[in-house]
Amino acid sequence: MSIKEIFITCCFTILVFFSTPTLKAQDKIDFDITLAGFTIGEMKANKVIKGDSTIYLLESKVSFWLFGTINVDYYTEVKYHKGVFISSIVSSQTNRGDFISKIWLEGDQYKIDANGYKYENSGTINEPIYHSAVRLFFEEPAGVEVMIAENLGKFSEIRAHGDGIYTTHIEGDQNKYYYQDGKMLKVSMHNPIKNYEVRRRDLQSK
Length: 206
What we know:
206 residues; mainly beta; 1 helix
């Protein structure tokens, strides 16, 4: 099936998805966000499956001190259809500005309009996308070698290091993910403002 055919099918499926009150499956995960050992915020991850469509949602709020109080509200919404990435939107509200990044399927190609702190990227991708960063919070990327970072609109290599440990590499930064029984325990994140960790709340004692 071509990207254009996937797009047409997905448009119809998404309309049905949001007009149907009963959800087929839903997965909710709570995370704590820590910096230098202190909890500075929280993240809520939500995965909703209806038929052939999957919606991933991430919402986080953090507040920390860096030559003044920094507040960051972060929201990610990503849509897949039959395992193919369809669109994403990443928005952030911070003391250093508000930013939004979008990737969407238009015809036979993806369009990119990414804007972040000291970062801009626009362009197109002419091949199907099967994996993106948001999925790493829900499932171990066993056998996956590349993903797209929704906030940057760029591909990142995924390297496996054994024992459920993986790293991603993009724009000179490395994020490190830890998994147990296929579930993400924590991730060490590199950020232009400040590095931090995201820890799964219900598995922290394990």
